[in-house]
Amino acid sequence: MKNYMSILKDNGLKATFQRMHILEVIGMYGHKDVDEIYAEVVKTHPSISLATVYKNILIMSQNNVLVEVPLIGRKAKFEIKKDCHVHLICKECGSIEDEDIDLVDINSLKEVLSNKNFLYSGQELNVYGTCSNCSSIKVS
Amino acid sequence: MKNYMSILKDNGLKATFQRMHILEVIGMYGHKDVDEIYAEVVKTHPSISLATVYKNILIMSQNNVLVEVPLIGRKAKFEIKKDCHVHLICKECGSIEDEDIDLVDINSLKEVLSNKNFLYSGQELNVYGTCSNCSSIKVS
DNA sequence: TTACTTATTAATAAAAATTATTAAAAAGGA
DNA sequence: TCCTTTTTAATAATTTTTATTAATAAGTAA
Asked: Do B32 and B76 have their domain in common?
């Protein structure tokens, strides 16, 4: 609780219970979409509105607290901002796992960016496939 | 025209005018979202319905003709399927440029995948920032 | 070509997702 | 505690996407 409070304040946002609950849910599960977040938060905070969840997710994304993870064929998920990492996304069950490793060839990237005069601000690497769980089930 | 016809047929889809027009628009611009595609296609094919555009984009995505490019804070774009590449996405103007280069460290990726027992099927690398056009304008 | 069979389209309609509005409530600082 | 400002909740309104189905068009084979 204290932790999320300071994250919010450090990023210039008021630490409301709604926001902290939203962050707790996302932190607990890693990646969640708006509906999933609402469904969890409403359990402990029955008066919260879905619009409030939308608005807070937007504000926290704009203020570097959350990061949107757009996905092929699914609703976007949100995660708490953290250092560069890779997403392993299962096309079967939709699970997302973080790998805390930077797989991008930084030198080649820098060259591409400088050739294009492109000012870098962030990246996302998504790897799609089938997780171990789903591939073992699929032996049917 | 001939080209897109064979792409469709090679992937087991009938080559209708609607589909070929959609592919032409995407091919012309590189990346387009559903509304943009509809707006272009309707110019030369006034009777087409938005639902038809949605359905065909879905079918062509499912049949490896198109690839969805989900984006942070924007509607997903679609591109014609091609080899592994990187997207340079401008946060200012929304432009997307392809770089035909594979920046991912393949050996490290293989190691991650084998550790996790994750069956690879595809990847997407998006780099966000400011394109040369927008950064030169922003000297204001 | 023509007739036939099947898949696709267009036009709704319906559902789902997202954003806007505003009075009431809550947060943070004096 | 009081005051000012921001945020919430509860709609309402949009926007986006999907479903339905009769009409149409595509591909196939005679």
From this structure: yes
